[in-house]
Design goal:
By secondary structure, the protein is of the alpha+beta class. It has one domain. 52% of the residues lie in helices and 15% in strands. The protein contains four helices and four strands. Strands 1-2 form a two-stranded antiparallel sheet. A two-stranded antiparallel ribbon has the order 3-4. The relative contact order is 0.20.
């Protein structure tokens, strides 16, 4: 049923954006962490990698169906779609250096490696994730309204 697929697509995006916000929050919380568990240097910024589920082929099939009148079953259309988080990766950009010879994690030259987190990037990423989340909430509320009105037809 297309209606339930639409809800699943919106729900998958809400889940993915919530995870993205959680990872951004973790990055901001560790902006001054100079030592991680195991002593392998400072905290590394984490990024969320997302990919479309059935996005590429479904869109191509929809275009083929619209252009040529191919039936949905013959076109191999999938009713499911959305987005999913494939992995959470660490940013490999270099650490920032700060001169503080009194810091317990300072090297022999007196420099401390700080996390590769830029607060401006994190805030802009959080704003983008929040906007995407809000857009999906709006889409979900629109779906609820459509379903509600559809149910009222039978009255």
């Amino acid at each position: 049923m297309a209606f339930l697929s639409s809800m699943n697509i919106t729900g998958s995006s809400l889940t993915a954006q919530q995870l993205r916000l959680d990872v951004i929050s973790e990055n901001v919380a560790n902006i001054n962490t100079t030592r991680v568990e195991g002593g392998n240097g400072p905290y590394r910024r984490k990024l969320v990698v997302m990919e479309a589920e059935n996005g590429r082929d479904s869109f191509r099939n929809v275009l083929a169906q619209a252009a040529g009148g191919v039936p949905a079953a013959a076109g191999g259309l999938s009713q499911q779609g959305g987005v999913r988080v494939t992995q959470i990766i660490e940013d490999t950009s270099p650490f920032k250096l700060s001169y503080d010879p009194t810091h317990p994690d300072a090297n022999a030259q007196g420099y401390v490696e700080l996390p590769n987190i830029d607060l401006v990037k994190e805030i802009s990423d959080a704003m983008a994730a929040t906007q995407a989340f809000s857009a999906n909430v709006t889409a979900f509320n629109t779906l609820k309204t459509v379903a509600s009105r559809a149910l009222e037809i039978g009255k």
